[in-house]
Design goal:
By secondary structure, the protein is mostly helical. It has eight helices and three strands. The protein folds into two domains: 194 residues, Alpha-lytic protease prodomain-like, CATH 1.20.1510; 72 residues, Alpha-Beta Plaits. The protein has a three-stranded mixed sheet.
């Protein structure tokens, strides 16, 4: 069963992160450290990511209705998309400021950088552990988890920069570490961004072996062929499938037994929890394996 993260855990994570953002921003400004300010910006994006994820987790549990027949599962996908895009924006701002700081260097306080970044490492590591299990099955939680892991790693970079500043008094280290943090942010957000776009385009879920799905259906006793096959993600942990299977002339009861066997095999092997199967008798003209959907013309529209 997928592991879920409670709303109380997300609320605690948001509260701790927002409090630390305020502290880190003040000390980053006071200590003239762009790396600390960059990390504070990353933490602010973390707080927004956690808040979006918290909202998505609570909204996804709302029951389906006439206007939303699948429910609100995709709220989590939208939250993950916003989180990933926000990371890219934060990275862009950091890069801009780092290049400016290289042109106009300022010597930051190395000791202050180390002290504040050490607190950031502990905070982000704790929250990452809270989210770790839920991140395996939920792209929404995974986007928030990657925010926290990325910031923990970037905080290590700030500690390293602070140590180098104390040892060498080289002001360029601060913006260089900031550029590395920005690169890390983009790298961690890319996978989530790609997965979200795939879901919204109703692409095949990552890791789903479509030839294996086809073979599994065709190997069910009584199935002669399969066509009009589609597999897509509705939301975190909810994968759907629809297909037409061709069977020999038989009774309705026998056809239903074949249908149930197809549904059970797909769920057992591929964790596809929502499958719709249309049974057709051989002799019908099938469409392509992956059929092309056709727009339905409005009956009131002029021909």
């Amino acid at each position: 069963m997928p592991v879920t993260v409670s709303g109380r855990t997300m609320a605690a994570a948001v509260t701790l992160t927002v409090a630390f953002v305020l502290v880190e921003t003040v000390y980053g400004w006071w200590g003239h450290s762009l790396a600390l300010l960059a990390d504070a910006g990353h933490n602010f994006a973390d707080a927004a990511a956690l808040a979006f994820s918290w909202y998505a987790l609570s909204t996804a549990d709302r029951a389906p209705h006439h206007g939303m027949t699948y429910g609100y599962h995709r709220v989590g996908i939208l939250a993950a998309l916003v989180n990933a895009v926000s990371l890219v924006v934060v990275a862009g701002v950091i890069i801009w400021e780092a290049l400016s700081r290289i042109r106009h260097p300022e010597l930051p306080s190395g000791g202050l950088m180390i002290a504040v970044a050490a607190v950031a490492v502990v905070l982000n590591a704790v929250i990452s552990l809270w989210l770790f299990q839920g991140a395996k099955d939920d792209v929404n939680v995974r986007s928030a988890y990657l925010h926290m892991v990325g910031d923990a790693v970037s905080a290590f970079g700030v500690i390293a920069a602070g140590a180098i500043v104390l040892a060498t008094h080289a002001s360029v280290v601060d913006p260089v570490i900031s550029l590395l943090i920005a690169g890390l942010i983009v790298w961690t957000s890319w996978g989530v961004l790609r997965e979200c776009v795939t879901v919204l385009l109703e692409g095949t879920p990552t890791g789903t072996d479509m030839p294996a799905v086809i073979d599994t259906i065709r190997q069910v006793g009584g199935v002669l062929d399969v066509h009009d096959l589609h597999v897509w993600t509705v939301g975190p942990g909810v994968v759907a499938c629809s297909c037409h299977i061709v069977v020999a002339e038989q009774s309705i009861r026998e056809g239903q037994q074949v249908l149930r066997a197809v549904v059970n095999d797909i769920e057992r092997r591929f964790r596809i929890s929502h499958t719709t199967v249309q049974v057709e008798v051989e002799g019908c003209e099938p469409n392509d394996l992956y059929c092309i959907s056709r727009r339905v013309r409005d009956a009131s529209a002029p021909m």
